[in-house]
Amino acid sequence: MGATASDRREFLSASAVMLGIGASGLVSTSTAAAAAQSSDVGVLQTALALEHEGIAAYQIAGKSGLLSPGTLKVALTFMGHHQAHRDSLAKLVTQLGGHPVEPKTDAQYIAELKLGELKSEADIVALATTLERGAASAYIGQITSLKDPAIARLFASLSADEAVHWTTLNNAAGTPIPAAPYLFG
């Protein structure tokens, strides 16, 4: 059902590898600092794309008419968090000389996340739970690849927000917390 935690982690990891390959070429023609900054911008862009995805998922689900008032309130709160995350990431990309990646169209998100297949509030909560767990794992997975400690701290904070979202949704779905440790590794 749409993007999984593994998909999101792999997407961020693949982006980091590609950026690392690209950055290694920059080192020979530029400074190591410029290569590190370029690498961080790439990771930020990938994270920004994932925040766009989260915003779209909550926005589209919120308009579906499938959510009860209480669940809609939580979805809108989480969407607001993702909008703030988006704004922070886009600002950093701009400050580092990049142009923030733009969101896809609603039709693209509907197709990619299979949002048209969601028929109930439980379906929406299940998808949101999967996306939030993937987001937490993706942010955690990229912290050590970031060169700027301030950006690494931001990713740690973002991962904590995503973990709170996952925990809230997991609880709402009545799904027990997994017994195994390292839930977002």
Weakly predicted, low-confidence segments: 11-29
Coarse shape: globular
**Number of DSSP strands?**
0
Largest sheet: none
Strand content: under 5%
Mean pLDDT: 86
User: How many separate helices?
Assistant: 6
Radius of gyration based on Cα positions:
17 Å
Order of helices and strands: HHHHHH
Helix content: over 70%
The secondary-structure class comes to mainly alpha
Distance between the termini: 21 Å
Overview of this protein structure:
With 185 residues, this protein is mostly helical. The protein has six helices and no strands. The protein starts with a helix and ends in a 13-residue tail after the last helix. About 10% of the residues have low confidence.
How would you summarize this macromolecular structure in one to three sentences?
This protein has 185 residues and is mostly helical.
Chain-wise SSE layout:
Layout: H1 5-29, H2 32-62, H3 69-95, H4 106-112, H5 121-142, H6 149-172
Helix pairs in contact: 1-2, 1-5, 2-3, 2-5, 5-6
Descriptive tags:
185 residues; mainly alpha; 6 helices; 0% strand; globular
